[in-house]
Amino acid sequence: MAEPLLEVAGLYKTYGSVPALRDVSFTLAEGGSLGIVGESGSGKTTTARIVLGLERADTGRVTVRGRDRSPRRRGRAERLRGAREVQIVFQDPLLSLDPRISPGAVLRETLRLHFPGTDHTRRIAQLLDQVGLGEREATGLPRQLSGGQRQRVAIARALAVEPSILILDEAVAALDVCVQAQILNLLADLREQTGTAYLFITHDLGVVSQAADHLIVMRHGQIVERGRTEQVLTEPRHPYTRLLLDSVPRPGWRPESIARARRDLPGPAG
Ligand code: ADP
Ligand code: MG
Question: What is the model's pTM?
Fold first, then answer.
């Protein structure tokens, strides 16, 4: 078998007395898309922050193409190289976009940092085109853009550094369903065009069914189920996965039976 692009092995992380991750291991193939689903507090963002190198695990390893992704990077070149391995897009790009800087200028700044000494005009035009932003949006300010447009800027900025891995942490959660569908289509196209692999974090099973080939289900910091997305969603084996699936509203859906099923689930140790 080919070496995985990303390998996460035996991550444990505790905040004070709160165990946030317990023995989290998974791999992501070159160009693949792995979904991480689970309710709020299940450890998804903690996993993402450790993969990024923003946070250090208590124990465990993260490797990209067999190389340790140590959070302690010496020097600027190391940090930039690390940033080219993994990029992230969060739920709310307003928090990560400087309100005074236009999308075009953000891209130029990012490209200058990573690929100094070249003219970036054509690359900027290409990136804007790839994410479906026009000249007008490119020169405006973030607050003049819609939520979907801002998310396109955040995606373009992440792709500008040509990352091997893009983490999408609830990246479409704040968008209405129609815009959500547009962004999901865009992400699928971009994966095909660029070969970037995705770590697709979401609490939304509808989103993950469209966006991920493989899936892990997290609960209380542990992986309770994993497999091909289709398989897990059509033949879930763990009661928690079945509960998540039953929690998606559809005709004939009864919230009371969900509450009962939740009470019957084993606790964190089970
Ligand atoms: P998710 O992204 O699935 O909602 P998180 O990874 O954010 O879950 O959180 C997992 C657990 O770790 C939660 O119990 C959360 O309260 C706790 N946690 C996360 N970050 C911190 C932190 N910086 N300090 C203390 N507790 C944290
Ligand atoms: Mg989170």
Answer: 0.93
